[in-house]
Amino acid sequence: MNFCSVAISTAFIVTLVAVLVLALLPVPELQEFGFDIGFENDRVNHASAFATLAALGALGWPRRIVTLVIFLALVGAAIEVLQGTTLIDRDLDMFDWVADCIGIAGGLVVALCVNWVMRRKG
């Protein structure tokens, strides 16, 4: 792996951890820590988070796209299930998972465009 691949892979892991923390902390704890980031529309938050993860993942592991898509879709579903538990006490909303999947598709398009640009330059 070259430096760029390592940096992108590391960015993916850091972003994944941040998404999980933001998605799985109960709202009062988020507010207590001063986290108020994102868009007013929660589905836009979901789509943008998973688009970022998909783009970074596809750029970091270009030969593992199918595995990446399955992994991210399962992570999105798990987040929704966990948000519906009394421990986290947030909303279980399957449309948020749909937004995750739309974000994954968008992130893959971004990665495809970046790869195309980089090949043309190269």
Q: Can you give me a brief rundown of this structure?
A:
The protein is 77% helix and 0% strand.
Explain what this protein looks like in three dimensions.
This protein is an all-alpha fold. The protein has one domain. 77% of the residues lie in helices and 0% in strands. It has five helices and no strands. Helix 1 runs antiparallel to helix 3, helix 3 packs antiparallel against helix 4 and helix 3 runs parallel beside helix 5. The relative contact order is 0.15.
Note the main attributes of this structure.
122 residues, mainly alpha
Secondary structure elements and pairings:
Elements: H1 3-24, H2 27-32, H3 42-60, H4 65-83, H5 94-121
Helix pairs in contact: 1-3, 3-4, 3-5, 4-5
Outline the low-pLDDT stretches. none
Q: Label the overall shape.
A: elongated
Distance between the termini: 18 Å
Class by SSE composition:
mainly alpha
- Round the mean pLDDT to the nearest integer and report it: 90
Helix content: over 70%
Strand content: under 5%
The overall strand count is 0
Largest sheet: none
